[in-house]
Every structure is written in structure tokens, then in C-alpha cells.
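[audit] Reproducing an earlier prediction to check determinism. Same input, same settings, fresh worker. If the C-alpha cells differ from the archived copy the diff job will pick it up downstream; this log only records the rerun itself.
[audit] input (403 residues):
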Amino acid sequence: MKRVVFSAVFVLLTLVCGAQTDASAVPADTLPGTMADSVAYVPRVSLLTCSPGVEVWQQYGHTAIRFEDEVRDIDVVFNYGLFDFQAPHFVWRFCLGQTDYIVGVEPYTSFYKEYVERGSSVTQQTLAFTPEEAVRFLELITRNCQPENRTYRYNFLYKNCSTMARDILRQAMDSPAAIARADSVSFRTILHRHNAAYPWASFGIDLLLGAEADRPVGRDLQEFAPVVLEESFALARRGGQPLVASTTVMAPTAPLPAPFRFPLTPIQTMIIVLLLTAIVCTFELLTQTRQWWYDILIYGLQGVAGVIITFLFFFSTHPTVGTNVLAVLFNPMVFVLLPFMLRQARLRRRPWAAWVEVGLVVLLVVGWLIVRQDIPLAAWVFVAALLLRSVHHLLGRIKKKSK
């Protein structure tokens, strides 16, 4: 049950990219010293890309940096995906987009074992760094791992385990690397590529992300996804030479377990809701009764989704949630309208609450036509069910008035 609850939080908030580890388990004194006094050898600096795991928060994979120095017997991984779940008000700060992540260091064997044993592969891209660049990288990352510097404000699209690793590697380079061709795609498109096997997680993400997630972005912004960063490094060249000197793939030691999947997809579920709405409305017309329970159910679902969407829209600093046109219809106002809607139907009074609900649907459509946000089809089907139910209340009132 604990796993289910934990997964649900991450699905609804949909704000985790990469593997997370308890930061308190990583000792700060395991950092190697600097090598400014000796560059006679060439240490290896490599970008590590871990394939997605089975859990919801693992579906985007992970990025880290490996540093190897055989002369000094150093083989460590620098990881920007660490956090302390025991930190005060962690869940609340996570909802507000105020989560602090930490860069830490651990032995490569421990890092490798964690991922390959869970069923993920680890791709190592050894970079064509000069001795001076390797020294500079170690000095930068050692300074970054100091207690006063190791914490950063996590942002799952703009500042995460992937972008932080990329940025410090770029700082260590004498000359920048470039890619000959880079297409522009949206954040939402990249997210869909990663969670295609998780339809409900994908649906939840689409409900929470606003129009900003649909604008095309360049290669730099796309590299929030570890697999995109891996591809960028594979294509990058400096002075006509590849940035990556060699690539090695460490296969998992066990197959990735099959993820749990709800039997119905979001679109199938919403079609059932729409059909059930039509059946209930027809039954009420034939029997001249009111099924109050169904109003509470369908408008209650709208209200619960609205509380989450509206909270993120107004209070969270998570990226793109503040441009979500769905907040027009999915907001807590329905909990104010619902008692009036039930009372007006029972007493056969003017159904102004139902008119307000219909008006919100119309405003949503108008807003969508203006901003062109990518709203999932399953959400539109649910909107159709809400509209059908509200129009049913209006027509029932008009029919009774005409008699």
C-alpha cells in the first residue's frame, strides 16, 4: 500500500525525472582530491545514462558522471539525482515545486549494482577529454560537492540530473561541442515518448501541464531527458572530432519486471463514463426521477481534479502548470455549484447552476481554440459527459416548464 500511495503522488504531480536516492546515505568525505599538481596521465570522464526502470518515477531514466583514475585507484560516480526524503515538509515543498536536490558521490560499483540489478542498462560514453579538461572537471565537481555548494533547486524540465551533469561537463571543456542538426520538438512530445507504456501516468501528466509544454524547444531544453542528452553527446563534435571517444553498454543482470497496468486505458474509462452518463440521463427521463448519486459522482470527479489543477496553477512553481487552460473547467467552483444544482433540480427551480457549468465548458473550448493546448482525447470525452449531464438538467427544467 505504501508503494501505491508513493507512486500516486508522483503520477499526479508528474514531476520526477531520474533516479532518486536518500542524500543522507552519501558521505561527503568520499570525494577525491584535486589533481592540479599532476596531469601526466589521462583520467577518464564518462557520461552515464541509465535506461528507465519499472516504477513511475523511474520512467525517464537517469544521468550521472563517472570519473576513473587508475593511477590513483579512483572510480566514482557523481550523481545530481539525490534528495533527502526526511527533510522537513518534503512532500509539501515537492507539491509547491520547492524541492532541493543534492549532488553527491558514490563508488561506481554501488551505482552500477543498483541499476543493473533493477533491470536497467547503463550506457557509458567516455569523453575525448584532454588531461587539462579532466583536471578542470574534477576541480569543478569537487567544489560543487562541498556542503555549501551541493544543493540546488530541482526543476524537472529546466534543472535536473541531466541538465546539471551536462552543464558542468561543458564548463570543463576548452572548446564547445556542437551538433550539426537539431530538430525542435515540444516538452510534451518528449514526455510522451517516455511514458507511452504508462497510459494513466501519461494522462495525469497531460492534465497537469499547460500550453507552455506544447511550444517547440531547441536541443538544449530537450536535454532534460537523459536519453536525449545521450544522443546529443553521441552526435556532438569538437574541431571535427567526436566528443565521445568510446561507448560501452552494460546490460542488466535481470529482466525488467512488468509494470502494473490498470485493465482499462484512460480513453476506455472515459468512454464508459460517457455511456453511463447517457444511460442515467435516459433512465431519468423515462422514470421522471433524479439520480442524485450520479451528480455527486461525476461533478465530484471534476472537483477533485480541479482542486489539484487549480492548486498547481496558482501556487506551484513547477514548469508549465501555470498555463493550463483546463483550470477554466476543472476548478473547485464545482463544489460550490453542486449543492445548488441538486437543490434546484429537486425543487424544480431555475437551473442557473447548470447554466454556469455549461458556460465553463464553452469557456474551455474558447480558451483551447486560442492557446491550442494539447488536451488528451480522454479529457475531452469526460468534458462531453459533463456537458451532457448539465444540458440534461437544463432540458429537464425546460420540458417541465413548458407543460
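[audit] rerun output stored. Observation attached for the diff report: The mean pLDDT is 85.
[audit] end
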